[in-house]
């Protein structure tokens, strides 16, 4: 039972930062950025490559995050600031094109094989009934710290208030003297930096690989939509729910269905769990679990 | 007098904010009724509630005896109710003529359209004749092949009236029809709308221009903070104590003088 | 070389069918379906499962179209009260679920290996005549679909779809049942896409879960956006361009001596770049939809 809880928390920490970033950017840019998960993929590659080249791990993580953020600012400057004017559909397809280019770049730069950090092998810590890999613990610790920092940034600072004001009512915020362009750039930077860091942390367990972004696409969107796109902290809870569902499906004993003592859902279907939850969420709560506002149809 | 539209006890609140609080009134066939009231008195919400865009919390809305309050907008249109919007948004990639044709929704099914046939061609010809007629009456013939989104605000208003009329409604609801329309055209509009009423189409008009209301309407419904505070002829408005009460504070009572 | 050109032409025709099908939804009705490939996959797998069950080919194709249309009803139902971008994500999820199901159904759908030795519609012809005959069949199918699409766009139904795409609130208050319009467009699209999938499976004599990758949907989308959504000629031009890049990059590999991973990267990157440039400089596509001036 404890192991189950731990696995859930570990998986949700994988999703949390990236989903938080996606939701943050959606709140301002008002379109689902498909390229967002590719920032995570690039962050993973950047961090792994830097670490293998001799950079200390902490520095590699930080630099990967900065790199992803800077890339997003450039993308926003050249692509999204122009496409957004033509409506969310065009912007969404533009993000799709960007995602293709980023995947192609990773494929051309490295190839299809995964690339892992060069870390000393360490035995898992045994804490009572719990097996904890040090890498997992590190990823969860960093995620928690960054989440707390983001919460403080959004809820406790002037900048955070400006971001939320702009997300709620752009014309009013602009009239109140907020520099919308600057804030949008800042939010793109922050969102992608979170995604890059999330990807780099994820690579601690899985290594960096070309399809890392594509594999994350639906779980991340499911998490962000469950929390209500544009509600950053909701996305973290959405990630928790998705992780819970995935872990539950993995560990669910469905032997009683077949009259056997032990039978589990085939591992291949685990990925489908989050999509099914996403569909249910969209059917039942089209605007997320924590949203009571009336919105456009 | 027989009634066409009956509104009884309609109530609507947005997030605890009561916008309509028990609105009652009725309209007969061919009657021209104005809805006036200060900003925020619930006029547009009332129109949205009747046309099915805003579900009401309580109350009954009947058109010719059929209840409307649970129907979707397209079903309400099917019962003979058409409306225009305060700020009509028009398609970018359709011409004015095409928008008018699209406003006639008869025989638009997939198979009927794909297979064609004599009936389909006859319907298309009838729609084109009707659309051409309304283009002329609404003075839009000159912009027939312009993209509808490129029209001026006033022309869009006229086009949305034309769209509403393409469906042969029994009741037409206009949301501020004269805002942005050239003053010369306003007189033509009065004549045209009176012509519609003479054909038996009832009109419910939300309007700020008291000259227009005074010339056109037989009766006025005055809304204030979601309640009907008065129903009277336009000429009686400036003597009505509740009406003065409603307008004092938010808008200057001078606007009412115009209607006399 | 001639055979290679015939192969490219046939593939272009089959993808053209898929793109025309997507155009019915995305171009005419403005529906952001990012799970379009699910319809194609259902059509392709119907041929495969039909062979395993011993059905004649026409029956499997018909069953595929019927199943795709059922899926279409479900997908359209999902969109009844969703904003369009949310619906796009939902359709992406539906397509992934279909892919995961066939990937894990090793008994009925062949699992990751897929199903091979599928029957084709032209198996009765001699082996040497088949490539040419299939190209002609493909051209005929695309021409028919293009004619029907253009006819639909000019009809009263097409006009209603345009009004739905441009101003849904106006369409709704003019008496159009938006849910029904969306459903009709999705059903027509699903049927054509499933047919394209059946033909593709019949042409390659093979079907696998890779046919259902989300990247395939994105490929069809780029055809639509590069050429010009909403206009049949534009969609066909986009198909030819994208299919050209896709097929002739391997030729460049042989000329320049590139690795196979570079080919994949080059294909993806080139199509992404063309799509992005098109969106930035000609967001309506190379052949944009025209205003219809009527007599």
Automatic annotation (TrEMBL), chain A:
Matching CDD domains: TM_PBP1_LivH_like (cd06582)
Phylogenetic placement of the source organism: Bacteria, Pseudomonadati, Pseudomonadota, Gammaproteobacteria, Pseudomonadales
Protein family according to the UniProt entry: Belongs to the binding-protein-dependent transport system permease family. LivHM subfamily.
Subcellular location: Cell inner membrane
Keywords (A to Z) from UniProt: Amino-acid transport, Cell membrane, Membrane, Transmembrane, Transmembrane helix, Transport
Annotated TM spans: 12-29, 59-80, 92-117, 137-155, 184-204, 216-243, 263-284
Membrane topology, as annotated: Multi-pass membrane protein
InterPro entries the UniProt entry points to: ABC_transp_permease, BCAA_transport_permease
Organism: Pseudomonas typographi
Protein name: Branched-chain amino acid ABC transporter permease
UniProtKB/TrEMBL annotation, chain B:
SUPFAM superfamilies (UniProt xref): P-loop containing nucleoside triphosphate hydrolases
Family annotation (Pfam families): ABC_tran
InterPro entries: AAA+_ATPase, ABC_AA/LPS_Transport, ABC_transporter-like_ATP-bd, ABC_transporter-like_CS, P-loop_NTPase
Keywords: ATP-binding, Nucleotide-binding, Transport
Record-given protein name: ABC transporter ATP-binding protein
Occurrences of domain ABC transporter (ranges): 5-250
CDD domains for the chain: ABC_Mj1267_LivG_branched
Residue stretches in coiled coil: none
Classification lineage: Bacteria, Pseudomonadati, Pseudomonadota, Gammaproteobacteria, Pseudomonadales
GO molecular function: ATP binding
UniProtKB/TrEMBL annotation, chain C:
Keyword Protein biosynthesis attributed: no
Keyword annotations: Cell membrane, Membrane, Transmembrane, Transmembrane helix
Residues that span the membrane, as ranges: 6-24, 31-53, 59-79, 86-103, 132-154, 185-206, 218-242, 263-284
Record's bilayer topology term: Multi-pass membrane protein
Family matches, as InterPro entries: ABC_transp_permease (IPR001851), LivM-like (IPR043428)
Localization per Swiss-Prot or TrEMBL: Cell inner membrane
Protein name: Branched-chain amino acid ABC transporter permease
